What we know:
By secondary structure, this protein is of the alpha/beta class.
Amino acid sequence: MKPVSASLPLIKRNQTTKPDESSIYGKARVTGNGSSIGAILVDTGRLSAENADRILRLQVEQGKRFGDTAIELGLLTEDDVRFALSRQFNNLYLPAGDNSLSYQLVAAYKPFSPIVEKLRALRSQLMLRWFDTEARLNSLAIMSPGIGEGRSFIAANLAVVFSQLGKRTLLIDANLRAPRQHELFKLGNNAGLSSMLAGRIGIEAIARVPSLLGLSVLPAGAVPPNPQELLGRTGFPELLQSVVRDFDVVIIDTPAAHEYAEAQIIAARASAALIVARKDRTSVAQTIELARSLQQTGTTPVGSVLNEF
């Protein structure tokens, strides 16, 4: 497969888009939720028990669906019903008023938007072209030639949509120069990948995202003076070998490939790389050059994404 010509879906970013969990990282299982729509909405504070009973009585009388009846009564909105359905089918997303994560995580906040449909299409293509848990082909480096081309945005939202598919997903922020994932997921950045590679902390640095079942994040940690040396040591490939066994999908955010040599080191340790290009910013020549350099280091480029925003 030609890595550049076989490009994946274009992603257009909308910049205005603003449970008890498992104690073992990455082990949360996604199972069917037997709760009714009414029970889910009552439990989450979107509907009172009295109004739920009122809807149920009218639903029985008219032979309609719970959601349709509630909307007609003006007691629920279509967003409320979609929210409950997402909980029933374990396609977790966050309501607009929830500010526990950054609104740039559109896959978590706007799951029915066109941009997230593009992300799901990208996920499907990756499942066909790259993903193979039995062969341990389940770690993917998200790369781009330069700074500001949307690597972190794509990596974060791609991790969210994989977790929504029911995959135990780990997002690693391996950009030890200018990390972003701790900001997007509103995590502390004192302990993370850099601390693990320096031998100062263990797997407890991996943080579960309670509001998104099955998703875990390993932030970059404190910015070290020697990121290339840290990532070039045996600790990084050993860490990847461990997490690809414990997680179904591992997404790795990287620094700008043309700016920092460790991006190639990261990609070489992953099973494949996805190249991100930004419209009116990344040149075709830069994209082709990056794809060729990946092939020279034995990394499989599964395709490219044009990130338009």
